[in-house]
Write a structure and sequence with these properties.
The chain has about 200 residues and is of the alpha/beta class. About 30% of the residues lie in helices and about 25% in strands. The protein has a single domain, classed as Rossmann fold (3-Layer(aba) Sandwich). The strands form two sheets. It has an eight-stranded mixed β-sheet with strand order 3-2-1-4-5-6-10-8, sandwiched between helices. Strands 7-9 form a two-stranded parallel sheet.
Length: about 200
């Protein structure tokens, strides 16, 4: 399976890339502005240093991939999301954060809801673009990432209140791998993955 990771040099991107490389069935394209400074090309890894806001460069890098995992943050997310939607990628897993729908309980992370935290606005704008597209997507809404057990999580659907605002990196990896192995899982859904802090 050919998998591309956008944001592969970020904290989670590096962890997830290392996890995927433990499975010899995965061929990876790792994408970020500095990918070639971090990763070496090999028979299983292709490093592409590019700006994902550049649609032409992104299209060339993503050609022939079965699944795209996007783990970017910052103000350019909407541009990247628009590029992915217009390129009509085969399968997209878009990683973002809880609070984009104002879904966090006021006494359990409510300060991170988009109405209270302006840094959430690019996250929400990007997700709106993806949800309005025809893409086969899954939105993974995570809390603040910490080390911990892969089974230390509760999944909630869009419209439900997440159990908290903290997530173990291992639990995100586990759910993402489930989607990679079963493309129909959580198709066109937005789910939160958080520790139960209620």
């Amino acid at each position: 399976m050919n998998i591309a990771i956008i944001g592969a040099t970020g904290n989670f991107g590096r962890l997830f890339t290392a996890k995927l490389l433990t499975n010899p069935n995965y061929q990876l394209t790792v994408i970020s502005k500095s990918a070639q400074n971090i990763y070496e090309n090999s028979h299983r890894v292709q490093a592409k240093s590019l700006d994902a806001t550049n649609k032409k460069d992104l299209e060339k890098a993503l050609e022939g991939h079965d699944l795209i995992y996007c783990a970017v943050s910052g103000p350019d997310q909407a541009v990247i999301a628009r590029n992915l939607a217009e390129l009509n990628v085969k399968r997209l897993v878009y990683m973002t954060v809880v609070g984009i729908y104002n879904e966090l309980a006021e006494d359990n992370g409510g300060e991170y809801n988009v109405d209270n935290e302006k840094e959430q606005i690019p996250n929400r704008n990007a997700v709106d673009i993806i949800e309005e597209s025809d893409l086969d997507y899954t939105i993974l809404r995570c809390g603040y990432l910490i080390p911990g057990d892969e089974n230390e999580y509760v999944i909630t659907q869009k419209g439900e209140t997440p159990k908290g605002y903290i997530t173990t990196s291992a639990s995100v990896e586990k759910v993402a791998l489930e989607i990679i192995e079963d493309n129909a899982k959580y198709s066109r859904e937005s789910i939160s993955i958080t520790k139960d802090m209620s």
